[in-house]
């Protein structure tokens, strides 16, 4: 079992979750983050820390979650690791689904890697 970052993270990159991860399994892209499912120890401490509610467990797998699990798996292998909290992207608060932003952000996902620490 693992945790998965979904589209709610796109264009926000609120990194509160990174700071609490005991195994440093987050990887950063240009406008999102992912979790390496092989490194995740399923402790769950990241999920409640995500202000965008973008992190979920794969315990109840659906086709939509499988899509995001595949994305997390693929990009965690090629993006740089992130272990410290950084500033969110501009307009992160207004694009935060937990704050009322309702649009599916999947189409805005960037395959580009984020900055190295």
Could you please describe the fold and organization of this structure?
The structure is a single chain. β2 (26-28) and β3 (33-35) form a beta hairpin. With 117 residues, the protein is of the alpha+beta class. A two-stranded antiparallel ribbon has the order 1-4. Strands 2-3 form a two-stranded antiparallel ribbon. Helix content is 16%, strand content 10%.
Itemize the secondary structure elements and their pairings.
Layout: E1 3-5, H1 16-20, E2 26-28, E3 33-35, E4 55-57, H2 63-76
Key structural traits:
alpha+beta, two-stranded antiparallel ribbon, 16% helix, 2 helices
Short structural description:
The chain has 117 residues and is α+β, with helices and mostly antiparallel strands. 16% of the residues lie in helices and 10% in strands.
What is the strand tally?
4
Rg from Cα: 13 Å
* End-to-end gap: 28 Å
Task: Strand order, main sheet: write it out.
Answer: 1-4
Low-confidence runs of at least 5 consecutive residues: none
Q: What is the H/E order?
A: EHEEEH
Main beta-sheet annotation: 2 strands, antiparallel
| Relative helix content | 10-25%
Give the CA-based shape.
globular
β content, as a range? Answer: 5-15%
Mean pLDDT: 95
Number of helices: 2
Structural category is: alpha+beta
């Amino acid at each position: 079992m693992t945790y998965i970052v979904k589209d709610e993270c796109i264009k926000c990159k609120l990194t509160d979750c990174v700071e609490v991860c005991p195994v440093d399994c987050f990887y950063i892209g240009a406008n999102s983050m992912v979790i390496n499912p092989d490194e995740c120890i399923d402790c769950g401490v990241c999920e409640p820390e995500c202000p965008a509610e973008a992190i979920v467990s794969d315990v109840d797998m659906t086709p939509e979650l499988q899509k995001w699990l595949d994305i997390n798996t693929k990009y965690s292998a090629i993006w740089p690791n992130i272990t410290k909290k950084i500033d969110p992207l501009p307009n992160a608060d207004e694009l935060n689904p937990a704050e009322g932003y309702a649009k599916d952000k999947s189409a805005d996902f960037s395959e580009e890697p984020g900055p190295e620490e």
